[in-house]
Amino acid sequence: xxxxxxxxxxxxxxxxxxxxxxxxxxxxxxxxxxxxxxxxxxxxxxxxxxxxxxxxxxxxxxxxxxxxxxxxxxxxxxxxxxxxxxxxxxxxxxxxxxxxxxxxxxxxxxxxxxxxxxxxxxxxxxxxxxxxxxxxxxxxxxxxxxxxxxxxxxxxxxxxxxxxxxxxxxxxxxxxxxxxxxxxxxxxxxxxxxxxxxxxxxxxxxxxxxxxxxxxxxxxxxxxxxxxxxxxxxxxxxxxxxxxxxxxxxxxxxxxxxxxxxxxxxxxxxxxxxxxxxxxxxxxxxxxxxxxxxxxxxxxxxxxxxxxxxxxxxxxxxxxxxxxxxxxxxxxxxxxxxxxxxxxxxxxxxxxxxxxxxxxxxxxxxxxxxxxxxxxxxxxxxxxxxxxxxxxxxxxxxxxxxxxxxxxxxxxxxxxxxxxxxxxxxxxxxxxxxxxxxxxxxx
Length: 443
Fold this sequence. Notes:
This protein is α+β, with helices and mostly antiparallel strands. The protein has helices at residues 5-15, 19-24, 43-49, 76-79, 92-97, 114-122, 139-149, 161-167, 192-199, 202-213, 239-248, 311-320, 370-375, 392-398; strands at residues 33-36, 54-56, 63-66, 83-85, 104-107, 128-132, 154-157, 172-178, 220-230, 252-254, 272-275, 285-292, 302-303, 329-332, 335-338, 342-343, 351-354, 356-362, 365-368, 384-387, 403-404, 411-417, 420-428, 431-434.
């Protein structure tokens, strides 16, 4: 692989005697891995039913390497939201962040959403995940992934950090800044990153990153944890930025991190380190952890009160749900939402989604959404049609085709594969009328 000359020269100085091994790593294939959605399935159960061999990613309990030749994204379990394909090193920042159930978390630069989904599984979809991206196109991927993962306690924003500060303020217990960067660590995985690097290098990225860093003081609650990460090696985007953050305010201090099997570049600085492609089974990554002061004046999130949903949805639950949903229901136009457990101010913000989209009310009738199907468990709904993942019928369903199922029951069904929901369909005379969304379909 032909690497940029100025990048090579800097890395030779940065790594010294280790540069040769580093350079040789670019001649090896990059690693591919997946992260299990433990909101839907346990790690043990997934390993038991997944048809392809897996090997653990050492720095996380729910990440696994798979073989590049295995078509994992064509498997029905992918469409059931049982896992997310994620580069192994990219799993490390959320491990360092260590969010807990009930935390109010912010992912500042979240698209396409892999790290946000990882945060959601760590907080067990309790508390609130505010996931944001300033790019209007890329934020759509966060929405899709949050629906596929079956999330309720999520607020998806399309905003700048300074506007989030103004609206929400000092409320967050955990903040992830996976900063936009020059992408040096992705050269092996994506050669296109080299071309981008030539026009969008470390110094240009440093300025953008500082625009985000400057807002952190206005977002943290007392004792909050911030993890800053990039997929680059440049000190201007990494160590220099952490030094800048610590020098800008006395409200921040270093916080030691534990990334099982990853040794620190400098043992005297256990709050930041790299994942190196010549030392670890993953692409290049930088991770640093910072803790906020315990003397920050902050605001707690409010709890959404419970209320009664519209009568049409009450009737839907009586017919179909074995476990009625409860919480704060909000009818916005024709769309009905179940709001998150926690509420934060959103005035003036571009809100893409707050909570779970249940469906639409049209002419007094309730039509369920794909998001609701992905939120439910098979045991929650009646009636159900469970298709084997190894069969032809589930593939045809996921492609949006008509399926002949020979079922004697009729009407709306939750369609599952091996016990895990994938969507809705109406059955009449043994024929399945497909309701799987066009934009979700298997190609």
